[in-house]
Write a structure and sequence with these properties.
The protein has nine helices and seven strands, in the order E-H-H-E-H-E-H-E-H-E-H-E-H-H-E-H. It is α/β, with parallel strands linked by helices and about 240 residues long. The protein has one domain: Spore Coat Polysaccharide Biosynthesis Protein SpsA, Chain A (Alpha-Beta Complex), CATH 3.90.550.10.
Length: about 240
C-alpha cells in the first residue's frame, strides 16, 4: 500500500492550527494512503508551536519538527521532505487556500506520474498577487518550458526519490515541476478550486514575488542547460551493493 506524509509549513499561523484537524479529517477517512501529517514550525514567534505540540499529542496522525528560527518556506518544505520516511510526500500550505480533500483527486495518478500538483482556478488573491503570479508563471514557462500553468500551487504529491534530489536553495518550491522533469520524472497537473485565506496574513509582498523569482528562474534554466546526463551501458559483475 502506498503511504503518504503531508508536509505543512507553519510560520505564525496560530489561529489556523485550531482548524487543521477538522479540515483534514474528511481526507483521512477517504484516502487509501494512510496519510500522516508533518507540521514544520518555521521559527514562529506567536503561539503556533504550542498549539502544534498540543495537536500532535491528541491526534496520532499529526507529527512535528521545529526550526531554531525562521528559515523560509523552501527550507521548511525541504526539511519536511528529508525528515519524513514514506515513499510519497505531499505539501499543502497552512492557510488552507487549497483543500486537503483535493489530494483524493491526485491519488489515482500516482501509478503513472512522479509529481502530481494542482492548478488553482478562480484565484482568491489580491490583484497584485494575481498579476505577479501570472507574469511569473509566463516567464518561468517561457524559459524552462515545463508545460505547467501553476508551478507554485501549494498542493502537491511527489515521489520521495524526486523530492530528496531537489537542490537546496531559497525559492526552490516555485520550480518543483521543472526540477522533477529535469530528473526525468513525469508530471501531472490537475485543476483545483482556490479559496479565501482561512486565517493569518500572507508572508509575501511585491518584492519577494517579483525580482527574486525572476532571478531564480534564470538560475534554474542555467542548471537545466548544464545538467550532466549519462547512462551506464555495461559493467563487470560487481553488484551495486559492492560499489563504495
Amino acid at each position: 500500500m502506498k503511504e503518504l506524509t503531508i508536509i505543512v509549513p507553519i510560520y505564525n499561523e496560530e489561529a489556523g492550527i485550531d482548524i487543521l484537524e477538522s479540515e483534514f479529517q474528511p481526507y483521512f477517512e477517504k484516502s487509501s494512503m494512510n496519510p500522516q501529517m508533518l507540521l514544520v514550525d518555521d521559527g514562529s514567534t506567536d503561539g503556533s508551536l504550542l498549539k502544534i505540540k498540543k495537536l500532535c499529542e491528541t491526534n496520532s496522525r499529526f507529527h512535528f519538527i521545529s526550526f531554531d528560527r525562521n528559515r523560509g518556506l523552501s527550507a521548511a518544505i525541504l526539511a519536511g521532505f528529508k525528515y519524513a520516511k514514506s515513499d510519497w510526500l505531499g505539501y499543502i500550505d497552512a492557510d488552507l487556500q487549497t483543500k486537503p480533500i483535493d489530494f483524493l483527486r491526485f491519488e489515482p495518478f500516482l501509478d503513472s506520474f512522479d509529481l502530481v500538483l494542482g492548478a488553482r482556478m478562480g484565484r482568491k488573491d489580491s490583484p497584485v498577487k494575481k498579476i505577479t503570479s501570472r507574469f511569473a508563471n509566463w516567464f518561468r514557462d517561457s524559459l524552462l518550458n515545463d508545460g505547467v500553468k501553476d508551478s507554485g500551487c501549494p498542493l502537491k504529491i511527489i515521489k520521495r526519490e524526486y523530492a530528496l534530489a531537489l537542490p537546496y536553495f531559497s525559492g526552490v518550491h516555485r520550480f518543483i515541476p521543472a526540477l522533477v522533469l529535469m530528473q526525468g520524472g513525469k508530471v501531472k497537473e490537475i485543476p483545483i478550486a482556490h479559496y479565501p485565506r482561512e486565517s493569518g496574513k500572507s508572508k509575501f509582498n511585491f518584492l519577494n514575488r517579483s525580482i527574486g523569482p525572476l532571478v531564480d528562474t534564470i538560475g534554474v534554466r542555467w542548471m537545466m542547460k548544464r545538467r550532466i546526463n549519462y547512462k551506464i551501458q555495461s559493467s563487470d559483475r560487481m553488484s551495486k551493493d559492492q560499489i563504495l
